[in-house]
Amino acid sequence: MKKIFLLIVCICALSCEKPSPTLQTGFWRAALIVQDTKELPFIFEVKDNGTLVIQNAEERITVDEIVIKGDSIRIQTPVFEGYFQGVFSKDGTQITGDFIKPSLDRVVPFTMKYGDEVRFRESVKTPITDITGSWETVFSDEGPEDRYIAKGIFEQDGNQVIGTFRTTTGDYRFLEGVIEGDQLQLSTFDGAHAFLFTATVTDSTLEGHFYSGNHWKEPFVSKRNNEYELPDAKDLTYIKEGYDGLSFSFPDIDGTMVSLDDERYKDKVVLVQIMGSWCPNCLEESKYYVEYLKEHPNPNFEIVALAFEYAPTKEKAFGSIKRLKDRLEIPYPILLAQYGDSDKKLANDKLPMLNHIISYPTSVFVDKKGEVRRIHTGFNGAATGQKHLDFKADFEQYVKSLLEE
Fold first, then answer.
1. 81 CB-near residues (< 8 Å, 6+ apart)
2. Mean model confidence pLDDT for the chain
3. Interatomic CA distance for residues 303 and 265, integer angstroms
4. How far apart are the first and last CA of the chain?
5. Are the C-beta atoms of residues 187 and 175 closer than 8 Å to each other?
6. pLDDT exceeds cutoff 70 at 13
7. What is the rounded CA–CA span in Å between residue 235 and residue 192?
8. Same fold across 133-224 and 250-404
9. What is the pLDDT of residue 9?
10. What is the pLDDT of residue 18?
11. Least-confidence region, from 117-126, 262-271, 300-309
12. Phi, psi dihedrals of residue 253, rounded to the nearest 5°
């Protein structure tokens, strides 16, 4: 009888336990809280198979590492180390917590709400103008050390806006937002970067601020200029006088030291990709290179990547590299050039033959004789539209010309 009584007690206890909440299928609105207590919103959809898909304009990012324990949830972003750690509300329709990037000690509060698929709260205010077109832009114009230029590229439909800012070092990803009266708001979240742009709009100017997470804020000013072009990405980085070419020796994921003098690279065209596993533009570039190798296999063409990682230890840095290689099925070696800091000034110490490294990624084209023929700074991602297509066409033609020499 005693055993039966205990069994009944256990069954009752289990039956009274509150079931764990689930990540309900459908649309959710997430909002990171950045400086000035502003919301940096993005939308994601939870699919029937349990994955969630982040949406930024045309971009779709699938997230499949989601763990729920009790009323707690952890959402690991793909490839990158950042993750959401949160707690469900009692009814399971809201989640609050922090977005955490451990290696950088960055913590950003967030909220998520089920059933809400409106990125920015709409109002009845009609946009005062249409910002479709190109915009000559300057960020942080107060001092020469922080100042840099960009090109805004936007498409507007009613009060809805998509586009990006191209800089000399890359682009600010797929931006999506609204214009309400004379106020512009654009945002994106890609798993690593959380960007918010706010601006006051006139027919010919944009003036506002750029927020990156809750750790960075800077002003920007744009003027409408459909003829504006940035400097050529092929003219920014070069081999300094006194150096014969590119030279390095760094370990691969197995600990083997690799250099351009290895037999594998002799008498071949080699593309050296300077990158980081934490960098969304590098991720997009790597996807393209993987695609290119599949579509244009050639035994006389090799790619080798040099990773500059901010992970605090060599082990964690190699862990990040392995995660990137496995997720993207990257066939070429990724060498660990630096860990503990991704500062470009420190990176220059590792590659002193370059005049500077101003962007992750940077691609160095080496011909069959071992001579550096071109250095391309940055990457024009898919968010840049025609510029991205032009980049791919030029890349394929240039590699073809080097292989035919």
1. 101, 102, 103, 278, 311, 320
2. 93
3. 9
4. 90
5. yes
6. no
7. 28
8. no
9. 47
10. 57
11. 117-126
12. -65, -20
CA distances from 240 to 251, 370, 372 (A): 25, 16, 11
Burial track 41-74 (b if 16+ CB lie within 10 A, e otherwise): bbbbebeeeeebbbbbbebebebeeeeeeeeebe
Residue 156 tokens read as 């507007």
Question: How many C-beta neighbours within 10 Å does residue 85 have?
Answer: 16
- Whether 7 has a pLDDT exceeding 70, the answer reads no
From the list 217, 180, 218, 215, the residue with the least C-alpha distance to 200 is 180
Where along the chain do its domains lie?
22-114, 133-224, 250-404
Nearest to 156 by CA among 135, 171, 142: 135
Q: What's the chain's length in residues?
A: 405
Report which secondary-structure segment, H or E, holds 352. none
**What token pair was written down for 134?**
């190109």
250-404 adopts what CATH topology? Glutaredoxin (3.40.30)
Q: Which pLDDT band holds residue 128 (cuts at 50, 70, 90)?
A: very high
CATH superfamily of this structure's domain 22-114: Cathepsin C, exclusion domain (2.40.128.80)
CB-based contacts of 175-178 (< 8 A; 24+ apart in sequence): 175/56, 175/57, 175/383, 176/55, 176/56, 176/57, 176/119, 177/119, 177/120, 178/119, 178/120, 178/122
- pLDDT interval class at 20 (50, 70, 90): confident
Lowest mean pLDDT among 140-144, 176-180, 246-250, 288-292: 140-144
- pLDDT at residue 205 tops 90: yes
Number of Cβ atoms within 10 Å of the Cβ of 325 = 19
> Per residue in 217-240, pLDDT tens?
999 999 999 999 999 999 999 999
Which CATH superfamily, name and number, covers 133-224? Quinohemoprotein amine dehydrogenase alpha subunit, domain 2 (2.40.128.120)
